Design the sequence.
């Protein structure tokens, strides 16, 4: 356990999140349900913000990458914590604006932004748009011009560092649909292309090197490459970079194969980026750029758990024991997509020793519908409550109505209360957008 732990086992032997009993939560809100600890989210937002304040003189902004978890309440929390957000679709943008989020602190991403998404951004005064293609630049310039505005933009740059959890590679040519490569000169060409646009104001550059990264080195290398690129542009064209966005990607704990990082560890990631910027800009006599970072997973990932009720149990002798719960890949898609590993416990008997390894399966009509494989549990019975940890990022946000299951509601625990921040769906919601053409309507004989 460390100071970031939001979970604890109480005297009754049941799991608590943010000081609230998960078994009571399951009873009150039913299962499956996503549950978030508000304080944990705030702590993570604050720690990044404080690090920029302490080590970079406040010359920057934390943007919460809301693709990790988007709903109105999370934008309210981000606004209260005085941070910005990264949105990656019209839907995220609309949700933030609808929640009353300050548009000037929104950064819009996307490798293929749609015209209506750009229009929504411009019409609402979104602070920064990160451009990622020639056609987008041309369209955005035209849309800004017709509105009589000059839009601040960053160019998404590919620094040739690709990181995946504990490994990273440096490449001269990266096969990626994102960004413009520094190495092959396309990033520089894009700068020149943008400089000719009358209604776009090139503020600087963005890069994002991957997600669920535990090492500091790839961040350090990427920052070095970005500063070298910035220096090069100054020498060649006298272009002064105002803003540098270093993306997100800091890793979180899912199982004991991952490190359980402390607040200080997270501060260190950011400090290592800031140290490079400070050192290199001084050495190269560059202006210190306004720093943006975009953590998503590390802000909400460990703040969230999912609660399920155990249903059917199937022991296939000598092979595997399946413990089926009331969820599935429709609300927990990361195993099906990435074979992601998770830790789970019986929330109602949290102190009991683990006696067997089971596979927690969902209720979807598909054999790959697994929530967590090879999980150590006490002997589970139908009716037990299972809690799966670290489900706060890329679970609710990636959920679907597959098999016409309900996307589970989301409950926020904070201030000694537990309340819905996303309400449960109903059967009516499931058919809400269905339409039946006249020729398919039942005819009375
Ligand atoms: N900024 C940009 C431009 C990004 O593409 C991402 C994540 C982030 C920030 C936030 O990264 P984070 O701090 O959350 O690692 N669905 C996958 C993760 C996809 C991440 C995509 N981009 C998963 O479930 O693991």
Sequence:
């Amino acid at each position: 356990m460390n100071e970031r732990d939001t979970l604890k086992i109480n005297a009754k032997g049941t799991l608590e999140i943010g000081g609230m009993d998960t078994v009571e939560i399951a009873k009150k809100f039913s299962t499956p349900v996503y549950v978030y600890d508000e304080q944990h989210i705030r702590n993570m937002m604050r720690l990044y913000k404080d690090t920029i304040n302490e080590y970079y003189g406040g010359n920057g902004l934390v943007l919460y990458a809301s693709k990790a978890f988007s709903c109105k309440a999370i934008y309210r929390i981000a606004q209260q914590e005085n941070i910005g957000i990264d949105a990656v679709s019209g839907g995220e943008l609309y949700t933030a604006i609808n929640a009353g989020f300050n548009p000037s602190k929104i950064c819009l991403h996307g490798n293929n932004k749609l015209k209506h998404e750009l229009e929504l951004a411009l019409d609402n005064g979104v602070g920064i748009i990160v451009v990622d293609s020639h056609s987008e630049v041309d369209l955005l310039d035209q849309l800004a011009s017709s509105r009589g505005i000059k839009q601040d933009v960053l160019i998404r740059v590919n620094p040739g560092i690709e990181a995946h959890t504990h490994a990273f590679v440096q490449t001269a040519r990266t096969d990626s649909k994102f960004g413009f490569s520094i190495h092959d000169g396309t990033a520089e060409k894009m700068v020149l292309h943008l400089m000719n646009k009358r209604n776009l104001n090139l503020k600087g550059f963005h890069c994002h090197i991957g997600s669920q990264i535990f090492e500091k080195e790839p961040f350090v290398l990427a920052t070095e490459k970005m500063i070298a690129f910035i220096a090069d542009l100054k020498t060649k064209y006298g272009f002064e970079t105002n803003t540098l966005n270093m993306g997100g990607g800091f890793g979180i704990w899912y199982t004991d194969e991952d490190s359980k990082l402390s607040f200080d560890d997270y501060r260190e990631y950011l400090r290592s980026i800031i140290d490079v910027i400070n050192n290199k800009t001084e050495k190269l006599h560059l202006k210190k750029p306004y720093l943006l970072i975009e953590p998503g997973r590390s802000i909400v990932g460990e703040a969230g758990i999912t609660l399920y009720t155990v249903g059917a149990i199937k022991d296939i002798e000598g092979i595997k024991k399946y413990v089926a719960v009331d969820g599935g890949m429709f609300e927990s898609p990361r195993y099906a997509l990435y074979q992601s590993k998770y830790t789970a416990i019986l929330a109602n008997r949290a102190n009991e020793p683990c006696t067997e390894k089971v596979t927690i399966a969902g209720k979807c009509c598909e054999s790959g519908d697994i929530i967590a494989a090879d999980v150590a549990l006490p002997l589970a019975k139908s009716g037990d409550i299972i809690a799966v940890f670290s489900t706060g990022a890329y679970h609710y946000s990636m959920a679907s109505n597959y098999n016409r299951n309900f996307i589970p509601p989301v409950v926020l625990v904070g201030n000694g209360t537990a309340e819905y921040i996303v309400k449960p769906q109903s059967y009516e919601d499931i058919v809400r957008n269905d339409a039946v053409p006249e020729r398919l309507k039942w005819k009375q004989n």
Q: What stands out?
A: The mean pLDDT is 96.
